[in-house]
Design goal:
The chain is mainly alpha-helical. It has one domain (2-189). It has helices at 2-8, 13-27, 49-52, 54-65, 69-73, 80-100, 106-130, 136-147, 169-189, and strands at residues 32-33, 46-47, 150-152, 155-156. The strands form two sheets. The chain has a two-stranded antiparallel ribbon with strand order 1-2. Strand 3 (150-152) and strand 4 (155-156) form a beta hairpin. It is globular and about 55 Å long.
Amino acid sequence: MIWWLRQRGALGLLPGALAAFVLSVGLTLDVVVVFPAFVGDFAVPTELSNFLCLIPSVALVVCLERRLPSVERSAVRRLDARDVTLVAGFALLVSVAAMAMSPLGPEAMVTAARNNLLFCGLAVGAWPLLGHRATLLPVFWMIHSMFLGGRSLNDPYPWVIVTEKADVAHAAVGAAAVFLAGVCSLIFFAPRTDR
């Protein structure tokens, strides 16, 4: 078990990613950025902390890429269940850490927790197909949600999720659905051999 944790980088990489996420989100609470809307009619302001929600998803893909397929294929115990537990547990831990910081700024922390689940779901869901390039999917999602704009002033398109306010129900449901789909993708489509 300890060999598997060391190989995945769970003892060094994930705690570092959690600390970086908590510190960076805590330090950029009220910083709002506005990018030009190239396609939509209105630019949508977003908090800088939304960009920092990419840190945990990148760390998870790096962890999943640190595997030894030949050794893991011959293992007596199944490591796939441990990978799923590691991914789901870390993503939920980061979201809980963001929610625990809600006295600093409740709306920003709820949004950070929701976006963390969205980005982790996108990255983990794409990992069986794209490998280490799966980190690009949440990055592209963030970029397109910034430059797409909104339907009206401070009203982003509903499917964007990232720039929605914290109290929007469909954004929370969408982020949870994407996270569950990503975990299911990891369960059913995780590669058993080298790419």
